[in-house]
Amino acid sequence: MTAAPIAIQRTGLVTSVGLTAAESCAAFRAKISNPTETRFIDSSGEWIMAHQVALEQPWRGLAKLAKMAALAIEEALQDIPRAEWDTLPLLLCVAEAERPGRAVGLDDQLFALVQKELGVRFAPASAVVPHGRVAVAVAMAMARSMLAPSPSPTKRVLVAATDSLLSWPTLSRYESGDRLLTARNSNGFVPGEAAGALLLGQPTGETDELVCTGVGFAKEAAHLDSGEPLRADGLSQAIKLSLQEAGWQMHDLDFRITDISGEQYYFKEAALALSRILRVRKAEFDLWHPAESAGETGAAAGALVLATAQMACRKGYSAGSHILAHMANDAGQRSAMVLRQGAAA
User: Fold this and answer.
1) Which CATH superfamily groups domain 6-201?
2) Phi-psi category of residue 221: left, alpha or beta, with phi > 0 → left and psi -120 to 50 → alpha
């Protein structure tokens, strides 16, 4: 292993199936979903269905993103005295620049709105991480550097992610590209919105602790809209790099958890990557995808993935102690993380 491991100490989630991590993960485990009609109509005259987060008021745009993020952060930090919150660096994960219909103000306004909601100013090392579905993995790598031993080491880092695909500029682009799941199109996803927060720190050795031991990144040339034949080169490379950091082989892992939200391209990519890396036959190698319940949540997807894995370890229903998580952006960015439960070898 070439990098120090980091532990996910606490989590918070806000999704269409729960306003806490416990509620959301229970729904994920039971495969419960809650799609409802939006205000938008597709080209066939049908209401577009989506996984919408129900808050006490019908906030939209940046205001809703900030409200969701604040709720998730408050849950993740509920055991930390509020007086200590300003010592935490916040890495705020948002949609990538290439995202259709990307909200104006994500890079220069949202962070301030989140701080205002919470009534706190986070540490100067805080940053916005605008990398979409791979943003949480990027933030994990950044947090690992912050937590590395130094003359004045950071004790904890807060990673938060918030996103929504439920605006007409975004939905219209996906609908015109036949990417939404409808009665006429089975090869698509149900759009959604969500927020998540992860409190990171040094591993303590607790048996139910979720520890990240490897992170890998790569670029897929044959991305969704490239027209090139898919060989899963990018995802395979990202997984190999994460395994190399962890000091493991693919067959050492027990199951996979990903951001896949319904499109055949991403299921095919996951299957191809597995076939290219796995060299020892495994009777079972489950693939978990929380988007089955929460929909396509963009930059928040990585937080859902890690919070689901952490809750499974805490509650004792994990499919094993060694886990592979991987995420992908439409433009080709790929990320993978190797996770372990507690001090498992």
Assistant:
1) Thiolase/Chalcone synthase (3.40.47.10)
2) alpha
| End-to-end Cα separation, the chain, in angstroms | 12
Q: What is the DSSP letter of 229?
A: P
The helix/strand/coil state of 275 is helix
Q: Residue 250: its pLDDT value, please?
A: 97
Residue 283, sorted as left (phi over 0), alpha (psi -120 to 50) or beta, turns out to be alpha
Q: Which fold has domain 210-341?
A: Peroxisomal Thiolase; Chain A, domain 1 (3.40.47)
Q: Hey, which residues does 160 pair with through a beta bridge?
A: 92, 197
Whether the full predicted model's pTM is greater than 0.85, yes or no, is yes
Collect all residues with Cβ–Cβ distance below 8 Å to 84 and sequence separation of at least 6: none
Residue 149's alpha-carbon distances to 87, 153, 155, 288, in angstroms, are 17, 5, 10, 34
Contacts of 202 (CB under 8 A, 6+ apart): 6, 7, 147, 155
| 6-201 against 210-341: fold identical | yes
Backbone angles phi, psi at 228, to 5 degrees: -85, 150
Please state at what angle helix 301-315 crosses helix 135-147, rounded to 10 degrees. 70
Q: Over the chain (345 residues), what is each successive 10-residue block's mean pLDDT?
A: 83 98 98 95 94 95 98 97 96 97 95 98 97 98 88 84 97 96 94 98 88 97 92 98 96 97 97 96 94 98 98 94 97 97 68
Angle (nearest 5°) at CA 250 between 325 and 279: 145
Give whole-number Cα distances, 144 to 124, 288, 319, in Å: 17, 25, 26
